Amino acid sequence: MEKYLVGTCSWTDPALRGSGWYPPAARDDPEERLRHYAARFPVVEVDATYYGLPSTRNCTLWADRTPPGFVFDVKAFATLTGHSARAGALPPDLRPPGPPQRRLTPARLPRGVVDELWQRFTGALRPLWDAGRLGAVLLQFPPWVRAGERGHAFLAECRRRAGRLPLAVEFRHPGWLAPGERERTLDVLRAHGMSLVAVDTAQDVPDAMPPVAAVTRPELAVVRFHGRSAAWRTGGKEDAYRHSYTAEELAPWRDRIRRLAGEAEQVHVLFNNCCGDAAVRSAAVMRELLAA
């Protein structure tokens, strides 16, 4: 098994498609685009599933169009992790009456809808799971999910609903990893068999997540690089993720990732600085650093 799998948090991002990284024949052909990506990187995060449920058909196609050993980390649908979602993103039979553009929090959905969304989400991933192509399901918690009894109960609820699926958790409230709370958070993740997602972001912005890297599930550790924009979590997508990592910025992470690999069977290193081809370029730099 390869120790380090380095890739990006999307292969379909419009900025990447328009950057010139894909050859002309692949830009508008979903199959060729994925094949081109998978020939260059061994892992990718599926970001689109945060905005809408995946389909069994697409998961089957993803597995069929990628080589043996290639894996997908799949981001959980927004509602499943406590975010609001567009009403129009919900399946028609689960959608409350009203405009499709309005945003609905999980608390505003009819009773039983969240349970049904979990079942459909996990069921759609079955082709990836059966093919050995599912790396992890990423649970990206919103900033208002905080450490404490309610936060720990939510973790337990996600674990129950996900069944045996491998889970990786990214927190967006720094309290989870504050010095007085960090060990308890890591212990809770270990108890539920969940991987902590270590993150790299700008550290001079409000509520910055500390770059804590720890193994809480021996099978897999995950690191996500969001860029170091001063507009992180405040600007639009282009501004929030506008950053190209240098080798000097990534060098300290090389040692952290190697330490993770000493305790975990595998480490997924994913770049989310999705502005033009910055993510694929940053991933290539990190791959070179880890190979040195």
UniProtKB/TrEMBL annotation:
InterPro entries named in the record: DUF72, UPF0759_sf
Matches recorded under SUPFAM superfamilies: TM1631-like
Spans annotated as Disordered: 87-106
This protein's name: DUF72 domain-containing protein
Protein's organism: Streptomyces mobaraensis
